[in-house]
Amino acid sequence: FTTFCIHSAMTLEHHRGAAKEEFLITDIAYCEQAAIFLKQAKFPQNNTQHKKEDGTLPRVICPKCRLGVTRIQDLSHADMKKVRQLALIDMTALCDILEVDVKRHKTGKRKIPESTLFGVPLATMLENDQKLKPNTLIPLFLQKLLTFLEKKGMDSEGILRVPGSQFRTKVLQENLETNFYTERFSWDDVSANDAAALLKKFIRDLPEPLLTAEYLNTFSSVRDITELRQKLHMLNLLILLLPEPNRNTLKALLEFLSKVVSRERKNRMNLWAVATIMAPNLFLHKAVPIRLTDGPEKGQVEKAADVMRLLIRYQDLLWMIPNFLVSQVRRLNENSNRRYQFYDRRFKNLLKKIQPETREKPEKIKSEMRRSVKVQVGDIVSGSLEFHLNINSRTADLLEQFQRQYIRSPANGKGKMRRNGSAVFPDCALYEVGGNIGEHCLDPDTHLLDLYNSNPTGEWIIRVKSYGGRAP
């Protein structure tokens, strides 16, 4: 089956000729896919360099399975810990198969400056910020800085490329260090170019690289992989391996850079230009001897920029958890549940003699059934909801029934009122809880009958969707 899936994707690509689209398969382990490609000698042997134009990067499609897409923020911390362990195994095997030479480094001890913003470890800054704003996912200063640049700098020609005034930037940094947390600082007179210079300095001054000392060289090695699909596989696994503060901060930065690129007609900054300007700030760090230092300086920048533009262009794909890893997490949880359910085999055998076990494994439902769904939407509504399942039922259908029955019902009037008199309804999501998963926020396109068959003992709970960091 595995070979057939990959061979089909390759055949489809062959018929397209010069591919304008790529397909990213996530049902099969990435290392296994690489091994099959290598065995079939389908890797191109030429090392043709990509042109600098943005159009050379094709559209990449990740076909949805019937269980929908799982993103990093959709799983519980306990399950994400398992994902990281499994991702490391797959990445190590993938590096071996692709013959990617990876050297990991640990950051040496560096004196942390007496500062509140610049040169402070991300984890420390977040810990302090969460005392002021619980559940925030990225530093408050970075949130304010990116918000300011989005409002004032998006259409500024050469934003990120045109340098700010060194004197003004230094004064601005000192002012922020002193007044940012006292709320006495005003952004009104700050120029967009000075703010952009501060953004780059903030990233450069981190005591440890944003991509971490441990994985920075592996990120850099992605440029040596020939196939785009394998590049994305490696980057996807590396993103999963990043510590949460680094991963969330990187995502906020990439989302901002993507918005800059989207305004290219006004700011004259295309994908290659943005990647070239920003890459040294992420890939060159004095705490880590990096492979990018090999060769001429111009070549170093281009190699780093090549990886940087992949991160910007394909960030939505890279923040997904591959289906094969979600399946492996489910199997780990199932094995763990079985192990702890009867930890004493003799006691289990004694129970069987006294009262033979009559429970049978739930049969897979193929057509229709009714399912009770818990509702826990804060102080707005609680209780349960009966939902009729059939082969086409999706999460979006269940949530629509909930909104219609409980929230938008004239009898309930649960929405908050705007000043203009219109109602604002809570943004709710369906969660799968227990069974072979810790907690899983479901994709709107998840087919619920397939989900039930995959995890028949899990509960379904409707809750208000929580957001951390910047507003979605």
Automatic annotation (TrEMBL):
Keywords: GTPase activation. GO terms for cellular component: cytoplasm. The keyword ATP-binding does not apply. One of its GO terms (molecular function) is GTPase activator activity. GO terms for biological process: regulation of actin filament polymerization; regulation of small GTPase mediated signal transduction; signal transduction. Coiled coil: none annotated. Residues 120-319 form the Rho-GAP domain. SMART domains: RhoGAP (SM00324). PROSITE patterns: RHOGAP. GTPase activator for the Rho-type GTPases by converting them to an inactive GDP-bound state. This is Rho GTPase activating protein 40. It comes from Nothobranchius furzeri (Turquoise killifish). The lineage of its organism: Eukaryota, Metazoa, Chordata, Craniata, Vertebrata.
